[in-house]
Write a structure and sequence with these properties.
Distance between the termini: 49 Å
Structural class: mainly alpha
Largest sheet: none
Number of strands: 0
Order of helices and strands: HHHHHHHHHHHHHH
Shape: globular
Mean pLDDT: 87
Strand content: under 5%
Radius of gyration: 19 Å
Number of domains: 1
């Protein structure tokens, strides 16, 4: 039973449910490569494992420095059940967990670089930059108003196009277009969280978008980019730049409205958990529906 307890503790520490936002875009990139006739299971699995491990390392680092800076936001009482904050694990153990995730992720990156070449190195370096400096000094991207943008880049184009390129070694606009809503909806998770964490972030001098421009403007941005995410898919499908099956993402419009409506009422802290849950679901389901749409095209049309 003690083993199960510690497994549960470290799954919480690694934010295991959140890892789906890197796993699903990797699957989408793999399916797109499969559609274009270039797929290798070994490379795909290695790349996906490396991405998820790097994501987990980034979450450990984020928790570690937020804890050290006493920037806990609403994590304790509202949404993020952190064993580091509760004292179930120590900061030193979190650093060891970070290393355990990073070492194999780096090894996979080196192997893919030797196998494919410098484009993989560039993408790996950009990914490592975001992993290390999203919260950690001296750059602390999320403290300088760049955290939301970093989330878009890391969980949108970098993963979807990155996995596609590793498998095909060719450029295509299709994975980039499809990565836009996935990246936007993942960025929205951070934007929603930062909107509700406004007061704590001000105290911690964490200059997120809501801190820099105000919570009402953050909600306006949330509305604009959410509409943009759906518009990119609709327009691209109509111009046959992506599969018509991608239009299935429209089914998520009601869920998107729920995110916007709850975040609009940011002064009601009881809305925080529901807004975040809906935002995470929207991020995951958007990638899942796009993936299923392309799988449908592969099996039904071929």
């Amino acid at each position: 039973m003690k083993i199960l307890y510690w497994i549960n503790v470290w799954l919480k520490a690694a934010r295991a449910p959140f890892l789906v936002v890197s796993f699903i875009p990797a699957i989408l990139g793999g399916v797109l490569a499969w559609k274009d006739g270039s797929f290798d299971w070994t490379i795909f699995l290695l790349t996906t494992v490396g991405i998820v491990l790097a994501h987990s390392a980034a979450d450990f680092i984020d928790d570690y420095f937020d804890y050290k800076n006493n920037n806990l936001g609403n994590k304790e009482a509202q949404f993020h059940d952190s064993p580091l904050i509760s004292g179930e694990v120590t900061s030193k153990q979190v650093l060891w967990a970070t290393a355990i995730c990073l070492i194999p992720a780096i090894a996979i990156g080196v192997y893919l670089y030797l196998l494919i070449g410098w484009p993989v190195l560039l993408m790996a370096l950009l990914g490592a930059f975001i992993v290390f400096f999203y919260t950690s000094p001296p750059l602390r991207l999320n403290y300088r108003g760049l955290g939301e943008t970093a989330l878009f880049v890391a969980f949108g184009p970098m993963i979807v196009f990155g996995v596609y390129f590793v498998l095909t070694q060719q450029f295509s606009w299709e994975p980039i277009i499809l990565s836009v809503p996935v990246g936007i909806f993942t960025m929205n998770v951070g934007l929603v969280s930062n909107t509700f964490d406004y007061e704590d972030d001000v105290k911690s001098q964490k200059r997120t978008f809501p801190v820099r421009f105000g919570q009402p403007n953050a909600v306006k941005l949330l509305n604009i980019i959410t509409v943009l995410a759906f518009a990119v898919i609709i327009v691209s499908a109509l111009f046959q730049m992506i599969s018509y099956f991608s239009l299935s993402i429209i089914l998520l419009a009601i869920l998107a409205f729920r995110v916007l409506n709850d975040t609009r009422k940011f002064n009601e802290i009881n809305r925080y958990t529901r807004a975040m849950g809906s935002a995470i679901a929207l991020s995951s389901l958007s990638g899942a529906l796009l993936t299923l749409g392309y799988l449908g095209e592969i099996f039904l049309l071929n």
